[in-house]
């Protein structure tokens, strides 16, 4: 399977129209249609549902779209790494980052490293730890900033100094917002949105103790930004760590006597780091 064909496929998926995709690729529409038909024959499954108005991806097409994006992203990364020349530190570093307070500490390091090496660029990908580790293993990311607890046996890492605290995010007019901290029993009276990651839920359940069976779970989430809208509309609460941002009309209330949480900046042990990635590790550790 050629990379060129994957680019053709992604163009069709993006435009949802063969004619528009052909124009963006500067190829003829019949030639593009033949290439996509051949790709479908090679894979043994239809990739698009075609109609007179538009085309949409099938389940197989959605899977191929994800894999094609990963493959082309990795190809682009390889080209950038091989373009780094001389003793000057340059190129792109790719970071997968969870939404946590450790990002502030990392951002300070990134800004200082870029000041010292102005030809460095960054690509920041926001995700939860499971997704970040997958992309680290695939070589798509150079580094991952992940909240603990997280399995890092196969990674080298540096622990972030910033300490974070568990709590709830509630509407500022909710009675819980007036408290200096909340106890497990306080959360049995309000619908809760909880973290999607299993390890995070285990941490929360341990703190809730006997009250874990008494809470009402309204849903789960991976990154906290979007869940704030439901917290406001439903007068619910989201179990999260200290606020990264100022959400209008919402208040963060910490857990009483909960274990603090830390983050790690990790990279794959077996990875042959690029010169710029090696330089960043040395800078960060120093």
Protein model, in words:
This protein has 286 residues and is α/β, with parallel strands linked by helices. The protein has three domains: 3-75, Orthogonal Bundle (Arc Repressor Mutant, subunit A); 89-161 and 263-285, D-Maltodextrin-Binding Protein, domain 2; 166-254, Periplasmic binding protein-like II (D-Maltodextrin-Binding Protein, domain 2, 3-Layer(aba) Sandwich), CATH 3.40.190.10. The chain has helices spanning 3-15, 18-25, 29-43, 59-83, 102-116, 129-138, 198-208, 227-234, 275-285, and strands at 48-50, 55-57, 91-97, 120-126, 143-147, 155-159, 166-171, 191-195, 216-221, 237-241, 250-254, 263-268. The strands form three sheets. Strands 4-3-5-12-6 form a five-stranded mixed β-sheet, with helices on both faces. Strand 8 (191-195), helix 7 (198-208) and strand 9 (216-221) form a beta-alpha-beta unit. The longest helix has 25 residues, at 59-83. The mean pLDDT is 89.
